Amino acid sequence: LYDPCAGLGSTLSAAATPTSALHGQELVPEIAAAARRLLAKQNLHANIVVGDTIREDKLADVIADRVLAVPPLNVRLDDDAINDSDPRWTLRRPKKYDVDSAFIQIALAHLAPNGRAIVHTAPSTLHSRNDVLESLMRSNQLDAVIMLPAGLAPGANIESCLLVIDRQRPP
Predict the structure, then answer these.
(1) DSSP state of 93
(2) Predicted pLDDT at 92
(3) Edge-first strand listing for the sheet containing 64-69
(4) 153 forms bridges with which residues in the sheet?
């Protein structure tokens, strides 16, 4: 189980089973340390590393059966945040105002061939011409889009959605 925006580990905790290997990356060192402590209190061992997931994938070797990503909504990428040679950008280089497509590609980079991912995004991902989303639909990997009402997104009172990606769907 992999979470590229681990935060306090609540997503990892909610999805963990007793046999889950938990991996996450968190930007803020103090929050990463708190996540490790909170997960340990639940008898869950987690490999939570510190770093900016967009700039540097510190868990590049982790391939997971399940990827859960709840990135911050409606944020902007710095021009220098994207490394053009990063192997995660297989569909396209993320654009400045399209952090959602970046996290979709991060989820895909860590997803096992038989895996499922859930990525929390802004509804604008669905309404704009999005070649990353189009690629998921063409390859029949987009299993579901679940619209969420305003107020369910952590720290925001806006509508959002969940993209369910399933690598086992027939092409």
Answers:
(1) P
(2) 84
(3) 46-50, 22-26, 2-3, 64-69, 111-121, 160-166, 142-148
(4) none
